[in-house]
Design goal:
Elements (H helix, E strand, L loop, with lengths): L1 E4 L5 E8 L2 H11 L5 H4 L1 H16 L3 H19 L1 H11 L6 E7 L2 E6 L3 E5 L5 E4 L3 E6 L2 E6 L5 H11 L1
Helix pairs in contact: 1-5, 3-4
């Protein structure tokens, strides 16, 4: 980790971290909003009821079972949303690689073997602090910045950018 702050009020902080399962889990927990159980399973219930109604009317048994299977699949995707997300991330090319995070007056820069991203402070609409990090909301997208990799000066720098 390196940090430099000079008298001309420029700030620069850089650190390296590994894109591992713990990091991806923290990202999911902080950034993915879970619907209330009734709302989340409404589509599931709809598929099941339509499929059952079609099955009972005898219109088309194959289509009926297909719609019922869609309902079951939807229920499983809700129930196992986090494990599925983690499995997808851990199968990606980026998993297990080192990433470099840089904070400066320009923005937040993240670089790894497969990703090079620069998020300018001017492009960030809102900064929300969570217990484990910062959610940077930009043009409807969420970007997560973990506090595990930030010292107190860099945390304060991000807070000031959000004020």
């Amino acid at each position: 980790m390196t940090m430099t702050a000079s008298s001309d009020s420029s700030f620069h902080y850089s650190t390296h971290f590994i894109l591992d399962k713990a990091y991806y889990g923290e990202c999911f927990d902080a950034s993915v909003t879970q619907d209330a159980p009734r709302t989340a399973y409404a589509k599931t219930l709809g598929f099941l009821l339509v499929g059952l109604a079609l099955l009972l009317t005898g219109v088309n048994a194959y289509a009926s079972w297909f719609i019922i299977a869609l309902g079951v699949l939807e229920a499983l995707s809700i129930k196992f949303k986090r494990p599925w997300y983690l499995a997808r991330q851990m199968m990606s090319k980026a998993a297990g690689n080192e990433a470099c995070l840089t904070l400066d007056e320009q923005g937040v820069k993240t670089e790894s073997l497969y990703v090079k991203q620069l998020l300018l402070w001017d492009d960030i609409d809102t900064i929300q602090e969570t217990t484990t990090g910062f959610l940077l909301l930009s043009s409807g997208q969420k970007h997560y910045l973990s506090k595990r990799f930030l010292d107190e000066a860099s945390r304060e720098f991000v807070r000031n950018k959000g004020a």
